[in-house]
Design a protein that fits this description.
Elements lengths: L2 H14 L9 E5 L5 E7 L2 E7 L7 H13 L7 E5 L4 E5 L6 H4 L5 H18 L10 H8 L1 H10 L6 H20 L2 E4 L8 E3 L5 E3 L6 E4 L2 H7 L8 H14 L6 H28 L10 H12 L6 H7 L7
Antiparallel strand pairs: 1-2, 2-3, 3-5, 4-5, 6-9, 7-8
Helix pairs in contact: 6-10, 7-10, 8-10, 9-10, 10-11
Length: about 325
């Protein structure tokens, strides 16, 4: 079914709910998946229509995570109406005031204080029972996107022989650090484009349907290694330590910093692979230009750890680097 037919199907569904869509329907955004979002007028208020074509997305997962967040008094959007068979949700409109547009070197202390409160609430109070585990298999499948899509497609002149010799040991060091951490609810994409300052100056949370139970550092590093702002290292370390203290973690500061750095390596390596896949498999061009920032995050972290020198040397080769 093409996109115009999907929209007609949504209009028919809403009309059956006595919601007249004669007014403008405006696309708000798409994302890295096949979901689309529209802002509409419904029942005297603006609402968000989510279009998640089956079988590409499971709205059941979205609804489950939404409930978990709201049960912990976090501001995920209220679900007004749902059509699970056809893949539509009508959601509360949290606005479009993304933290991406709010964050700067002048505002970061205020913004991060608000977002760190959310991180703490998620880690301590969001129910993670029965969520998928962020286990070795999932962590590895994400990291393998880097060689499988970035190296094999984007850098297709690169020989993987040397890379493959060190890849397994490198991955296992990262996995050991991740699994040794306290495990909790993990949003899995907690960054400034998925966080909104709402009209009441609260924090709205979106794009949470891939949540898992995993390492407590993961959502923190998703936030601080930002895709649009490269924060100085001293600030990164200050935020790592502030989060450790706020949660009263029974992890010494040096080990915690290493845990955060290695978790950052896992995520940033995954992101480079995902962005390459979005370009070469899905034809989404807007992501490929972001790769150099994340690649720089990877190499700058590798330099801090002598045990990762073999991987650093490979990634700094001109045939491998962006």
């Amino acid at each position: 079914m093409d996109q115009d037919q999907r929209l007609k199907l949504a209009q028919s569904w809403l009309k059956n709910l006595q919601i007249d869509l004669s007014n403008d329907i405006r696309m708000v955004a798409g994302d890295a998946s096949f979901r689309r979002y529209f802002r509409i007028q419904a029942e005297g208020e603006t609402r968000i229509l989510m279009d998640a074509p089956p079988p590409d997305d499971s709205l059941g997962t979205f609804i489950d995570i939404d409930r978990r967040l709201r049960d912990a008094n976090l501001h995920a959007p209220e679900i007004i109406h749902k059509d699970l068979d056809n893949g539509f949700l009508l959601l509360e409109d949290l606005g479009d005031n993304m933290y991406r547009s709010l964050l700067s070197e002048h505002s970061v202390d205020i913004c991060f204080a608000e977002l760190f409160d959310v991180l703490k609430q998620m880690a301590l109070h969001v129910n993670s029972d029965d969520l998928p585990d962020y286990d070795v298999q999932l962590l590895r499948s994400e990291m393998d996107l880097f060689p499988d899509w970035y190296l094999d497609h984007h850098r297709n002149g690169f020989s993987r022989i040397q890379f493959d010799l060190v890849w397994d040991d490198f991955c296992h060091q990262i996995f050991a650090s991740a699994l040794d951490q306290p495990q909790c609810f993990v949003h899995r994409d907690f960054h400034s484009c998925n966080l909104l300052r709402t009209a009441d100056r609260g924090v709205g949370i979106i794009d949470f349907q891939d949540a898992v139970k995993g390492p407590i550092s993961y959502d923190l590093i998703s936030l601080i290694w930002d895709r649009y702002i490269n924060w100085p290292r001293d600030l990164l370390e200050n935020w790592m330590e502030a989060f450790r203290q706020s949660l009263d973690l029974d992890i010494n500061a040096q080990k915690w910093q290493r845990d955060c750095d290695l978790m950052g390596l896992q995520r940033n390596i995954k992101i480079v692979g995902i962005f390459a896949r979005l370009y070469y498999r899905d034809g989404k061009k807007g992501y490929i230009e972001m790769i150099p920032r994340f690649y720089q995050y990877i190499t700058s972290t590798l330099r801090r750890y002598p045990e990762f020198t073999p991987m650093l040397k490979i990634m700094e080769q001109s045939e491998c680097a962006p």
